[in-house]
Amino acid sequence: MKKLFKLAAVAAALAFSANAANANDKIGFADPGYLMQNHPWMVAANEKMTQFMKESEAKFADEDKKLQDEEKALLAERKKLEDDAKKLQKEQSSVEASLKKKVEALEKEAPRLRSKEIQARQDKINAEHKAFQNKVAAIQKREAEFGKKAEAFQKKITAFQEKIAKEQQSSAGFDPNEVQKQVVEEINQTIKTVAESKGYTLVFSPAMALYAKDEKADITEDVLAALKANAKPLPEKAADAPKTEEKAEASADAKPEEAKK
What we know:
InterPro entries: Chaperone_Skp (IPR005632), Skp_dom_sf (IPR024930). 70% of the residues lie in helices and 2% in strands.
């Protein structure tokens, strides 16, 4: 949530980009990242976000703590499940070797044994095999149950994040994406206006310049001054339109006598 406003690629959309400059061009420079960070709207938006973060820490602390505790429990359960699965894999080799040895011995000794004795030894072999299969089934059941728990927990996390995002926009009163979009557009337009007023025919990002003899060619501060001079209040987020169901209910409530007909 702290990185709500990422720097947009303003440089790629600078009004005066060109494939190459010729000798008649007057070249200027403007730092898009600096302008984004210091645009009045972005400064105000970040201040509101900081305030929201402080207020939300207390508001969502209990729910956040419960989710953290649940996550720790799930991680511990997964670790135990993985350890038990590894032990069972090792046990599998031992059980298979034991069963093979007993089956071979029974086949070898069967001609000298009575049918009752053969059946008894077969039952023991089957019981040993069944016991191991039960262990495998138990692990598989635990894995399936853990998968359901993990899926349910992920849904809780998603719902919690959505709740915070919704609360954030509601408290801030503006749409971060829309604000950033308008800021980029205004920066580009202001760069163009300032550049034209100073006679520049090309404007690049400072990152593209290996050397600039004239420091006055950097119009970043002039652009920022123009942005501040023309700054307007941070645009508020439009209220969400009522849902269709709500409209229908409102219409029904408004005309109860018609519904009775």
